[in-house]
């Protein structure tokens, strides 16, 4: 049974959180994915989830949160019923500049993940497009990160894979068994949706979803997280994207 979730970062520009959670529940979502900015008000977050019946099955947290506040984040995850903790980003100035640096970054991630894994949680990395820029050795940063530890899982963002000029299906197959969740994200046709940073509602862009879904299912990926980085209307995005995925 495929889990269908919604990354709450999509709705960061549409406060308050309680209204977003109500909208998602009424749209038909059962699960959401959190992000670090939500953890400043744990009581409010938990109350909103309890009121709507939504489950935060996965969440993003900053690498600093993973390294410096692991015990607290593990406790929060356990309290919320979250089973997957994903580090999603590293700022441009903090990104390694060569292959050795990316390999070291992967090792750093793997080390940060150990307390979470010891607590029974999945720990992983979520890609953007900068991990597909070849290093001086010809290696891609995403491969160097993944090579650090077989226990470090991936949340493969299919929108960023395509935007980087790569085939989502090829990368799904490449890391079969290592993908704990997939970000289901679509890209608008060239020149369209400039006011939404070129992203599109799932099923209303250029992604070829039939082979992508088939590859995800064949490799055992059963957690789909809907995402759009900058929707003008998050309720429209949620409604149309869920309808598309339900037709997969």
Structure description:
- With 248 residues, the protein is of the alpha/beta class.
- Helix 1 packs parallel to helix 2, helix 1 runs parallel beside helix 10 and helix 8 runs parallel beside helix 9.
- The chain is globular, with a radius of gyration of 17 Å.
- This is Sugar phosphate isomerase/epimerase.
- InterPro entries: IolE/XylAMocC-like, Xyl_isomerase-like_sf, Xyl_isomerase-like_TIM-brl.
- GO terms for molecular function: isomerase activity.
- Keywords: Isomerase.
Which properties best describe this structure?
8-stranded parallel beta barrel, 248 residues, 17% strand, TIM Barrel, Xyl_isomerase-like_sf, isomerase, Sugar phosphate isomerase/epimerase, single chain, two-stranded antiparallel sheet, alpha/beta
Largest beta-sheet characterization:
8 strands, parallel, barrel
* CATH H-level superfamily title: Divalent-metal-dependent TIM barrel enzymes
- The CATH architecture can be given as Alpha-Beta Barrel
Q: Which H/E pattern describes the elements? A: EHEHEHHEHEHEHHEEEHEH
Cα distance spanning the termini = 13 Å
Per DSSP, what share of the residues sits in E-state strands of 2 or more residues? 15-25%
Find the CATH topology.
Answer: TIM Barrel
Which regions contain 5 or more consecutive residues with pLDDT less than 50?
none
Characterize the overall form.
globular
Structural class: alpha/beta
Report the average pLDDT across residues. Answer: 97
CATH class descriptor: Alpha Beta
Number of domains: 1
**Total count of strands:** 10
| Strand line-up in the sheet with most strands | 1-2-3-4-5-6-7-10
GO molecular function, one term: isomerase activity
Keywords: Isomerase
InterPro entries: IolE/XylAMocC-like, Xyl_isomerase-like_sf, Xyl_isomerase-like_TIM-brl
Domain Xylose isomerase-like TIM barrel: 24-235
């Amino acid at each position: 049974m495929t889990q269908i979730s919604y990354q709450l970062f999509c709705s960061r520009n549409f406060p308050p959180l309680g209204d977003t959670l109500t909208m998602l529940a009424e749209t038909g979502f059962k699960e959401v994915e959190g992000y670090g900015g939500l953890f400043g008000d744990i009581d409010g977050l938990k109350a909103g989830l309890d009121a709507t019946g939504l489950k935060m099955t996965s969440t993003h947290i900053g690498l600093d949160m993973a390294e410096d506040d692991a015990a607290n984040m593990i406790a929060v995850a356990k309290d919320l019923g979250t089973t997957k903790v994903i580090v999603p980003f590293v700022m441009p100035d903090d990104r390694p500049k060569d292959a050795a640096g990316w390999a070291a970054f992967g090792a750093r991630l793997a080390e940060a993940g150990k307390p979470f894994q010891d607590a029974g949680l999945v720990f992983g990395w979520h890609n953007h497009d900068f991990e597909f820029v070849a290093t001086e050795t010809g290696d891609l940063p995403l491969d160097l990160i993944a090579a650090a530890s077989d226990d470090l899982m991936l949340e493969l963002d299919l929108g960023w894979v395509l935007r980087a000029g790569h085939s989502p299906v090829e990368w799904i197959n490449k890391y079969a068994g290592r993908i704990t969740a997939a970000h289901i994200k679509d890209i608008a046709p060239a020149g369209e949706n400039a006011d939404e940073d070129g992203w599109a509602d799932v099923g209303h862009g250029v992604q070829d979803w039939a082979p992508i879904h088939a590859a995800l299912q064949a490799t055992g990926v059963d957690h789909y997280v809907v995402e759009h980085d900058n929707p003008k209307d998050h309720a429209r995005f949620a409604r149309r994207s869920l309808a598309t995925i339900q037709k997969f």
